[in-house]
Specification:
- With 298 residues, this protein is α/β, with parallel strands linked by helices.
- It has 2 domains: 5-212, P-loop containing nucleotide triphosphate hydrolases (Rossmann fold, 3-Layer(aba) Sandwich), CATH 3.40.50.300; 216-296, Malonyl-CoA ACP transacylase, ACP-binding (Alpha-Beta Plaits, 2-Layer Sandwich).
- It contains 10 helices and 14 strands.
- The protein has helices at 45-52, 92-100, 106-112, 128-140, 158-173, 185-189, 209-215, 228-237, 257-269, 283-296; strands spanning 5-16, 19-30, 34-38, 60-65, 68-69, 77-80, 146-149, 177-182, 194-199, 202-208, 219-225, 241-243, 251-255, 274-279.
- The protein has a 6-stranded mixed β-sheet with strand order 6-7-8-3-9-10, with helices on both faces. Strands 2-1-4-5 form a 4-stranded antiparallel β-sheet, with helices on one face.
- A hairpin with a 2-residue loop joins strand 4 (60-65) and strand 5.
- The longest helix is centred in the middle third of the chain and has 16 residues, at 158-173.
- It starts with a strand and ends with a helix.
- Bound molecules: adenosine-5'-triphosphate.
- This is ABC transporter ATP-binding protein.
- One of its GO terms (molecular function) is ATP binding.
- InterPro entries: AAA+_ATPase (IPR003593), ABC_transporter-like_ATP-bd (IPR003439), ABC_transporter-like_CS (IPR017871), P-loop_NTPase (IPR027417).
- Keywords: ATP-binding, Nucleotide-binding, Transport.
- It comes from Amycolatopsis nalaikhensis.
Length: 298
Protein backbone atom coordinates (compact mmCIF):
# COMPACT_ATOMS: atom_id res chain seq x y z
CA UNK A 1 0.00 0.00 0.00
CA UNK A 2 1.27 3.53 -0.78
CA UNK A 3 2.31 5.71 2.17
CA UNK A 4 -0.53 8.17 2.91
CA UNK A 5 0.16 11.78 2.03
CA UNK A 6 0.54 14.35 4.81
CA UNK A 7 0.44 17.14 2.23
CA UNK A 8 -1.18 17.07 -1.19
CA UNK A 9 -1.17 20.32 -3.16
CA UNK A 10 -2.44 20.73 -6.71
CA UNK A 11 -2.17 23.90 -8.79
CA UNK A 12 -1.64 26.21 -5.83
CA UNK A 13 -1.45 29.87 -6.79
CA UNK A 14 -0.97 32.75 -4.37
CA UNK A 15 -0.55 36.40 -5.32
CA UNK A 16 0.24 39.51 -3.32
CA UNK A 17 -1.04 42.35 -5.52
CA UNK A 18 0.90 42.03 -8.78
CA UNK A 19 3.44 39.61 -7.29
CA UNK A 20 2.80 35.95 -8.09
CA UNK A 21 4.40 34.25 -5.07
CA UNK A 22 3.22 30.73 -6.01
CA UNK A 23 2.35 29.81 -9.57
CA UNK A 24 0.57 26.46 -10.00
CA UNK A 25 2.48 24.52 -7.32
CA UNK A 26 1.97 20.75 -6.98
CA UNK A 27 3.43 19.09 -3.89
CA UNK A 28 3.21 15.60 -2.39
CA UNK A 29 4.72 14.94 1.04
CA UNK A 30 4.48 11.38 2.34
CA UNK A 31 3.62 10.85 6.02
CA UNK A 32 6.52 10.40 8.42
CA UNK A 33 9.10 11.94 6.08
CA UNK A 34 11.32 14.98 6.37
CA UNK A 35 10.71 16.97 3.20
CA UNK A 36 12.93 19.91 2.28
CA UNK A 37 11.73 23.01 0.49
CA UNK A 38 14.61 24.84 -1.09
CA UNK A 39 14.99 27.84 -3.37
CA UNK A 40 16.55 31.25 -3.75
CA UNK A 41 15.25 34.41 -2.04
CA UNK A 42 11.69 35.18 -3.07
CA UNK A 43 11.09 31.69 -4.51
CA UNK A 44 7.87 31.28 -2.50
CA UNK A 45 9.04 28.95 0.29
CA UNK A 46 7.65 31.01 3.18
CA UNK A 47 4.39 31.61 1.33
CA UNK A 48 3.92 27.87 0.80
CA UNK A 49 4.81 27.05 4.42
CA UNK A 50 2.30 29.71 5.53
CA UNK A 51 -0.42 27.93 3.54
CA UNK A 52 0.50 24.62 5.22
CA UNK A 53 0.12 26.33 8.60
CA UNK A 54 -3.20 27.88 7.44
CA UNK A 55 -1.84 31.37 8.09
CA UNK A 56 -3.20 32.28 4.64
CA UNK A 57 -5.32 30.62 1.99
CA UNK A 58 -4.43 29.93 -1.63
CA UNK A 59 -6.05 32.01 -4.38
CA UNK A 60 -6.40 28.92 -6.56
CA UNK A 61 -5.78 25.20 -6.33
CA UNK A 62 -6.43 22.40 -3.85
CA UNK A 63 -4.53 21.86 -0.63
CA UNK A 64 -5.07 18.84 1.58
CA UNK A 65 -3.30 18.52 4.94
CA UNK A 66 -3.34 15.15 6.71
CA UNK A 67 -6.10 13.97 4.40
CA UNK A 68 -8.46 16.93 4.96
CA UNK A 69 -8.90 20.30 3.22
CA UNK A 70 -6.41 22.88 4.58
CA UNK A 71 -7.69 24.57 7.73
CA UNK A 72 -9.53 21.50 9.03
CA UNK A 73 -6.58 19.83 10.77
CA UNK A 74 -5.30 22.88 12.65
CA UNK A 75 -4.66 21.16 15.97
CA UNK A 76 -2.42 18.58 14.31
CA UNK A 77 -0.19 21.15 12.55
CA UNK A 78 2.41 23.31 14.23
CA UNK A 79 5.51 25.33 13.38
CA UNK A 80 6.61 28.81 12.38
CA UNK A 81 7.37 30.96 9.36
CA UNK A 82 9.97 33.74 9.07
CA UNK A 83 11.08 33.38 12.70
CA UNK A 84 9.40 32.13 15.85
CA UNK A 85 7.26 34.82 17.52
CA UNK A 86 8.76 35.10 21.03
CA UNK A 87 8.54 37.53 23.96
CA UNK A 88 12.06 38.91 24.62
CA UNK A 89 11.30 40.04 28.18
CA UNK A 90 10.09 36.58 29.27
CA UNK A 91 12.24 33.56 30.07
CA UNK A 92 12.32 30.53 27.79
CA UNK A 93 9.96 28.65 30.11
CA UNK A 94 7.60 31.64 30.43
CA UNK A 95 7.55 31.97 26.63
CA UNK A 96 6.33 28.39 26.28
CA UNK A 97 3.60 29.01 28.85
CA UNK A 98 2.58 32.28 27.17
CA UNK A 99 2.44 30.62 23.76
CA UNK A 100 0.90 27.26 24.65
CA UNK A 101 -0.43 27.48 28.24
CA UNK A 102 0.70 25.41 31.22
CA UNK A 103 1.62 21.88 30.24
CA UNK A 104 3.59 19.14 31.97
CA UNK A 105 5.65 18.70 28.78
CA UNK A 106 7.49 22.04 29.11
CA UNK A 107 10.61 20.63 30.78
CA UNK A 108 10.75 17.68 28.40
CA UNK A 109 10.67 19.83 25.25
CA UNK A 110 13.24 22.28 26.65
CA UNK A 111 15.47 19.28 27.36
CA UNK A 112 14.82 17.89 23.89
CA UNK A 113 16.00 21.06 22.13
CA UNK A 114 18.95 21.48 24.50
CA UNK A 115 17.72 24.58 26.38
CA UNK A 116 17.26 23.15 29.91
CA UNK A 117 20.25 25.09 31.26
CA UNK A 118 18.82 28.43 30.10
CA UNK A 119 15.14 27.65 30.76
CA UNK A 120 14.88 30.52 33.26
CA UNK A 121 16.95 33.06 31.31
CA UNK A 122 15.25 35.90 29.47
CA UNK A 123 14.98 35.39 25.72
CA UNK A 124 16.32 38.94 25.18
CA UNK A 125 19.83 37.54 25.69
CA UNK A 126 19.36 34.53 23.41
CA UNK A 127 21.30 34.07 20.17
CA UNK A 128 19.43 33.52 16.90
CA UNK A 129 20.17 29.79 17.14
CA UNK A 130 18.74 29.61 20.69
CA UNK A 131 15.59 31.43 19.54
CA UNK A 132 15.19 28.94 16.69
CA UNK A 133 15.47 26.08 19.20
CA UNK A 134 12.89 27.71 21.46
CA UNK A 135 10.56 28.12 18.48
CA UNK A 136 10.98 24.40 17.79
CA UNK A 137 10.24 23.62 21.45
CA UNK A 138 7.03 25.67 21.27
CA UNK A 139 5.99 23.77 18.13
CA UNK A 140 6.73 20.41 19.78
CA UNK A 141 4.55 21.16 22.81
CA UNK A 142 1.41 20.41 20.83
CA UNK A 143 2.79 17.05 19.56
CA UNK A 144 1.95 17.89 15.93
CA UNK A 145 1.48 15.28 13.22
CA UNK A 146 2.78 17.84 10.70
CA UNK A 147 5.63 20.12 11.75
CA UNK A 148 6.34 23.12 9.48
CA UNK A 149 9.62 24.98 9.98
CA UNK A 150 10.99 27.98 8.07
CA UNK A 151 14.79 27.78 7.93
CA UNK A 152 15.15 26.06 11.32
CA UNK A 153 18.93 25.82 10.88
CA UNK A 154 19.24 29.63 10.71
CA UNK A 155 21.84 30.81 13.20
CA UNK A 156 22.70 27.34 14.45
CA UNK A 157 26.36 26.35 14.80
CA UNK A 158 27.36 22.90 13.48
CA UNK A 159 26.75 21.23 16.86
CA UNK A 160 23.36 22.95 17.17
CA UNK A 161 22.44 21.91 13.65
CA UNK A 162 23.33 18.30 14.44
CA UNK A 163 21.26 18.42 17.62
CA UNK A 164 18.19 19.82 15.83
CA UNK A 165 18.61 17.30 13.00
CA UNK A 166 18.61 14.54 15.63
CA UNK A 167 15.35 15.87 17.11
CA UNK A 168 13.68 16.01 13.69
CA UNK A 169 14.89 12.51 12.77
CA UNK A 170 13.47 11.08 15.98
CA UNK A 171 10.13 12.80 15.32
CA UNK A 172 10.00 11.40 11.79
CA UNK A 173 10.85 7.91 13.11
CA UNK A 174 7.84 8.24 15.39
CA UNK A 175 5.60 9.18 12.45
CA UNK A 176 5.60 13.00 12.48
CA UNK A 177 5.88 14.58 9.05
CA UNK A 178 8.32 17.50 8.84
CA UNK A 179 8.35 20.11 6.07
CA UNK A 180 11.18 22.60 6.36
CA UNK A 181 12.74 25.25 4.17
CA UNK A 182 16.29 26.29 3.47
CA UNK A 183 18.24 28.37 0.98
CA UNK A 184 20.89 25.73 0.66
CA UNK A 185 20.66 22.28 -0.78
CA UNK A 186 23.71 21.08 1.16
CA UNK A 187 21.92 21.89 4.43
CA UNK A 188 19.12 19.55 3.44
CA UNK A 189 21.31 16.72 2.16
CA UNK A 190 21.95 15.30 5.60
CA UNK A 191 18.34 15.40 6.68
CA UNK A 192 15.86 15.00 3.84
CA UNK A 193 15.17 12.05 1.59
CA UNK A 194 13.01 14.17 -0.68
CA UNK A 195 13.15 17.82 -1.66
CA UNK A 196 11.09 20.28 -3.64
CA UNK A 197 12.98 23.03 -5.40
CA UNK A 198 11.09 26.25 -5.96
CA UNK A 199 12.18 29.09 -8.20
CA UNK A 200 10.09 32.20 -8.83
CA UNK A 201 6.98 30.51 -7.48
CA UNK A 202 7.24 27.33 -9.56
CA UNK A 203 8.32 23.80 -8.72
CA UNK A 204 11.43 23.02 -10.80
CA UNK A 205 12.08 19.65 -9.13
CA UNK A 206 10.33 17.46 -6.57
CA UNK A 207 11.46 14.01 -5.58
CA UNK A 208 14.23 11.91 -4.05
CA UNK A 209 17.66 13.51 -3.76
CA UNK A 210 19.26 10.60 -5.66
CA UNK A 211 17.21 11.39 -8.74
CA UNK A 212 18.31 15.01 -8.66
CA UNK A 213 22.04 14.30 -8.57
CA UNK A 214 21.73 11.69 -11.33
CA UNK A 215 20.01 14.23 -13.58
CA UNK A 216 22.94 16.61 -13.43
CA UNK A 217 26.09 15.01 -14.68
CA UNK A 218 28.58 17.73 -15.70
CA UNK A 219 30.29 19.38 -12.74
CA UNK A 220 33.23 21.64 -11.93
CA UNK A 221 36.12 19.89 -10.13
CA UNK A 222 39.16 21.48 -8.50
CA UNK A 223 42.27 19.69 -9.75
CA UNK A 224 45.57 19.93 -7.86
CA UNK A 225 48.53 17.99 -9.19
CA UNK A 226 52.29 17.63 -8.74
CA UNK A 227 52.89 19.62 -11.99
CA UNK A 228 50.17 22.26 -12.66
CA UNK A 229 51.62 23.50 -15.98
CA UNK A 230 51.92 20.01 -17.46
CA UNK A 231 48.46 19.14 -16.13
CA UNK A 232 46.93 22.09 -18.00
CA UNK A 233 48.43 20.72 -21.20
CA UNK A 234 46.97 17.25 -20.55
CA UNK A 235 43.56 18.79 -19.80
CA UNK A 236 43.67 20.75 -23.07
CA UNK A 237 44.11 17.47 -25.01
CA UNK A 238 41.62 15.38 -22.98
CA UNK A 239 38.27 14.67 -24.69
CA UNK A 240 35.13 15.82 -22.84
CA UNK A 241 37.05 18.02 -20.39
CA UNK A 242 37.11 21.83 -20.37
CA UNK A 243 38.87 24.34 -18.15
CA UNK A 244 35.98 26.04 -16.31
CA UNK A 245 37.76 29.34 -15.70
CA UNK A 246 40.98 29.77 -17.73
CA UNK A 247 41.94 32.92 -15.74
CA UNK A 248 41.77 31.20 -12.31
CA UNK A 249 45.02 30.32 -10.53
CA UNK A 250 43.69 26.96 -9.41
CA UNK A 251 42.85 24.56 -12.22
CA UNK A 252 39.08 23.90 -12.29
CA UNK A 253 37.88 21.43 -14.91
CA UNK A 254 34.31 20.84 -16.10
CA UNK A 255 33.48 17.29 -17.11
CA UNK A 256 31.20 14.30 -16.74
CA UNK A 257 32.52 11.43 -14.62
CA UNK A 258 33.68 9.12 -17.45
CA UNK A 259 35.74 11.94 -19.04
CA UNK A 260 37.17 12.70 -15.60
CA UNK A 261 38.23 9.07 -15.13
CA UNK A 262 39.99 9.20 -18.49
CA UNK A 263 41.73 12.45 -17.50
CA UNK A 264 43.13 10.91 -14.29
CA UNK A 265 44.55 7.98 -16.26
CA UNK A 266 46.15 10.37 -18.77
CA UNK A 267 47.74 12.40 -15.96
CA UNK A 268 49.12 9.26 -14.33
CA UNK A 269 50.48 8.02 -17.67
CA UNK A 270 52.43 11.29 -17.99
CA UNK A 271 53.83 10.90 -14.47
CA UNK A 272 51.65 13.68 -13.00
CA UNK A 273 50.32 12.85 -9.53
CA UNK A 274 46.75 13.91 -8.67
CA UNK A 275 46.73 15.49 -5.19
CA UNK A 276 43.12 16.69 -5.15
CA UNK A 277 40.15 16.19 -7.43
CA UNK A 278 36.99 17.43 -5.73
CA UNK A 279 33.68 18.99 -6.82
CA UNK A 280 33.74 22.77 -6.30
CA UNK A 281 30.17 22.55 -4.99
CA UNK A 282 28.41 19.32 -4.01
CA UNK A 283 26.65 17.53 -6.89
CA UNK A 284 23.30 18.37 -5.31
CA UNK A 285 24.15 22.03 -4.84
CA UNK A 286 25.29 22.15 -8.48
CA UNK A 287 22.02 20.60 -9.67
CA UNK A 288 20.08 23.05 -7.52
CA UNK A 289 21.98 26.04 -8.91
CA UNK A 290 21.54 24.86 -12.50
CA UNK A 291 17.77 24.35 -12.10
CA UNK A 292 17.08 27.60 -10.26
CA UNK A 293 19.24 29.66 -12.62
CA UNK A 294 17.41 28.19 -15.65
CA UNK A 295 14.06 29.16 -14.12
CA UNK A 296 15.20 32.69 -13.20
CA UNK A 297 16.42 33.22 -16.78
CA UNK A 298 12.99 32.39 -18.26
N1 LIG B 1 2.80 39.72 2.55
C1 LIG B 1 3.36 39.96 1.36
N2 LIG B 1 3.07 41.06 0.67
C2 LIG B 1 3.62 41.30 -0.54
N3 LIG B 1 4.49 40.48 -1.17
C3 LIG B 1 4.81 39.35 -0.51
C4 LIG B 1 4.28 39.02 0.77
N4 LIG B 1 4.80 37.84 1.15
C5 LIG B 1 5.60 37.44 0.16
N5 LIG B 1 5.62 38.34 -0.84
C6 LIG B 1 6.36 38.24 -2.10
O1 LIG B 1 6.14 36.93 -2.62
C7 LIG B 1 7.32 36.38 -3.16
C8 LIG B 1 7.67 35.09 -2.45
O2 LIG B 1 8.06 35.41 -1.10
P1 LIG B 1 8.44 34.32 -0.02
O3 LIG B 1 8.71 35.07 1.25
O4 LIG B 1 7.40 33.27 0.00
O5 LIG B 1 9.79 33.71 -0.63
P2 LIG B 1 10.91 32.87 0.10
O6 LIG B 1 11.29 31.78 -0.84
O7 LIG B 1 10.46 32.45 1.45
O8 LIG B 1 12.07 33.92 0.21
P3 LIG B 1 13.25 34.07 1.32
O9 LIG B 1 14.18 32.95 1.07
O10 LIG B 1 13.85 35.40 0.98
O11 LIG B 1 12.61 34.04 2.67
C9 LIG B 1 8.39 37.46 -3.03
O12 LIG B 1 8.44 38.18 -4.24
C10 LIG B 1 7.87 38.33 -1.91
O13 LIG B 1 8.33 39.64 -2.04
Amino acid sequence: MDTPLAVRARGITKCFGDVVALDGVDLDVASGRIHGLVGPNGAGKTTLLGLLLSLAVADEGQLEILGAPAGQALSAVSGFVDSPGLYPSLTARQNLTALRGHTPRTDAVLEEVGLSDVADDRVRGFSLGMRQRLGLAAALLTEPRLLVLDEPANGLDPAGKKHVHGVLERLADEGTTVVLSSHRMDDLEALCSEVTILATGRVVFSGPLGKLSAENAELDYRLRTSDPAAARQVVADAPGVRVADPAADVLVVRAQEPALDDLVLRLAKDGIAVRELAPVVSPLEAAFLALTQQESAR
